Each structure stands twice: as structure tokens, then as C-alpha cells.
Amino acid sequence: MPIYRYRCAKCNQEFEKVAKIADRNNQVHDCGGCGELIFSRPFVFNEGRVGNQSCPYFDIALGKKIESRSHRLKILKQEGKEEAG
Known about the structure:
- By secondary structure, this protein is mostly beta strands.
- The protein has one helix at residues 69-78; strands at residues 3-8, 14-18, 35-38, 48-50, 53-55, 57-59, 64-66.
- A 3-stranded antiparallel beta sheet has the order 2-1-3, with no helix packed on it.
């Protein structure tokens, strides 16, 4: 299922939810406000190796190279964001 990005109509906070395509317009934020679907750049994951070095992937939404999932979570925390799902 795709991950959708929303902005809460009540508190204006952005959040992400994994939802079926048919349910993408019916999401509610933790505060009870309706989520308005917003469009953002896709998340791109490029996993692999070149020689003996692992290739990091580039998170387009963050605009940064990410070495691992824990590294991505650390960056999200530093920017005051959290991973949904």
C-alpha cells in the first residue's frame, strides 16, 4: 500500500499514513482533525553495492543521503518530524 502525506485541517501538522488507494481521502489525524492530502516528492530507495562499498540511498523528501533506516529516523527526529506507520 502507498504512503500518503497529509496536513491536518485542525492543527496544521503534517503526517503520513499507509492507506489503500480507495481510502486515501478518508484519513484522520491523532488530534481528530481531517487530513487533507498533500503532494510531495516520492521517497526513493536505492540499495546495493559498488565494489566493497554499500551505496546509501537518497531521500528526496529530506533532500539528504541516508546510510540506513536508523540514520533516516535520526534525521527526522532532529528536524522535529516522525515516521508514520
